[in-house]
Each structure stands twice: as C-alpha cells, then as structure tokens.
Amino acid sequence: MEQPIRATWAVTWDRLHDDTRQLAGRLIQGRRKYRSIVAITRGGMVPAAILARELEIRLVDTLCIASYQDREQGDMKVLKSVDGRGEGVLVVDDLSDTGATIRTVREILPDAHVVTVYVKPAGRDVVDEFITEVPQDCWILFPWDTSAQHVAPMALTAADRSRPHSDAD
Ligand SMILES: O=P(O)(O)OC[C@H]1O[C@H](OP(=O)(O)OP(=O)(O)O)[C@H](O)[C@@H]1O
Ligand SMILES: Nc1nc2[nH]cnc2c(=O)[nH]1
Ligand SMILES: [Mg+2]
Predict the structure, then answer these.
(1) Annotated binding residues for xanthine, as ranges?
(2) Residue 50 in contact with residue 89, Cβ under 8 Å?
(3) How many CB atoms lie within 10 A of CB 119?
(4) Atom 17, ligand 1: which residue's CA is nearest?
(5) For residue 48, what is the enclosing H or E element?
(6) Whole-model pTM?
(7) How far is the CA of 68 from the centre of ligand 1 (A)?
(8) What is the pLDDT of residue 158?
(9) Lower Cβ count inside 10 Å, N or C end of the chain?
(10) Neighbours of ion ligand 3 (CB under 5 A)
(11) Which residues fall within 8 angstroms of residue 116, CB to CB, at 6 or more apart?
(12) Positions marked catalytic
C-alpha cells in the first residue's frame, strides 16, 4: 500500500558527490569490469557523470524512463531504450523508491549490474548496490530540484497573520 509522505530530506550537491564517490569506491573494490554506463534519465545522469569520471569509463548511454509527475507515480514510460541484455553494463539511477523503475530496467537489461545512490525499503532488494537508505515515508529533495531562498522571520509572518484585515489589503 502506498505510504503518505511525512518528511523530506534535502540532499546537497556536496552530499550527493560524497555519496556517489563512496559508491565508486565500492564498485572499484568489487573488481567487476564495466565496458559502459547506462544512466536512467533524468535523475541518474548526475551520479552517472560522477561514476564515469571515477571509474574512468567514457562510454555512457541513457535509458529514458519516466513515471512520476510531481510526487505521484503514474504509468512507466520507456521513452528511449538501449540494445543488448546489459552484459558488462553498469546501470545508474539516483534512487530506488517503490522499485518499479529498476524492475523495468531489469526487464530490459537482465544482465546489467544495477546501482542507485539512495534506496527506500520497498526498492532496496531490486538494486545490486546502494549507499544510503531513507525511510519509505521520506521524500528526497535532490539539489537539481531545489534552490536556497530567503524566508521571513517567524515573528513577522505570525504578526502578519494576526493583523486585522483592511480594505487596503
Ligand atoms: O523506484 P520508483 O518508485 O520507480 O522511483 C524511482 C524513480 O523515480 C524518479 O524518476 P522520475 O520517474 O521522477 O523521473 P526523473 O528521473 O526524470 O525525475 C527517480 O529518479 C527514479 O528514477
Ligand atoms: N525527488 C524525488 N523523486 C522521487 N521519485 C520517487 N521517489 C522520489 C523521491 O523521494 N524524491
Ligand atoms: Mg528517474
């Protein structure tokens, strides 16, 4: 059953870079050889770029899959696929949440090694490796979806709320 979102976690660029480098370190220790990386667009493209650099892999392709509109998951749409069964391919995505995206990836590339930087419990067992697990009811805010902005002091916004309404408003 779908869980309501009760928390958010804002991932910074630095945190994402550190976590992805940690993933690179694990993959190097794993000693498998990859001939190419396939990034699951769009979220997988930033970690894929970092892994491509750290692992010295210059052949990078995309598997274009979309299913979320805002925070609602709809039908899985494969907009662009890749050839082959994924032998020697490292598939990279930012996150496995329900696991639906990675299950689709595995139907297309059953022989690939599949990693994400983040997982939630329902999506954990479909990936081969990940770095950080977050609760199912937590929405991750990625740095490319957010920006720092000024917020008014609480005292001022509270004062504004208690101000009587006038016709000038
Ligand atoms: O495990 P799941 O429940 O399938 O969710 C995880 C997927 O959802 C997000 O992609 P999204 O479909 O939002 O597209 P985007 O990467 O273009 O933002 C995220 O980048 C993963 O690919
Ligand atoms: N940004 C973002 N996209 C998602 N797609 C599925 N789950 C998530 C999430 O927690 N955060
Ligand atoms: Mg995605």
Answers:
(1) 97, 140
(2) no
(3) 24
(4) 42
(5) helix 45-55
(6) 0.92
(7) 6
(8) 78
(9) N
(10) 43
(11) 44, 47, 92, 93, 94, 95, 96, 102, 123, 127, 130
(12) 93-94, 97
Domain 7-162 CATH assignment equals 3.40.50.2020: yes
* CA distances, 33 to each of 23, 81, 112, 160 (Å): 15, 22, 11, 61
Q: Which amino acid is at 72?
A: E
Q: What does the radius of gyration of the chain's CA atoms come to, in whole angstroms?
A: 20
Torsion angle in degrees (nearest 10) through CA of 153, 156, 161, 165: -150
Query: What SS3 state is found at 132?
Result: strand
3-state secondary structure (DSSP) of residue 124 = helix
CB-defined site of ligand 2, < 6 Å: 68, 95, 97, 139-140, 142, 145
Instruction: Indicate if ipTM > 0.90.
Output: yes
**What is the CA(94)–ligand 3 centre distance, in A?**
7
Strands (E), the chain: 7-10, 36-41, 60-69, 72-80, 89-96, 113-119, 132-133, 138-141
* pLDDT tens figures, 146-169: 999 999 999 998 766 666 665 655
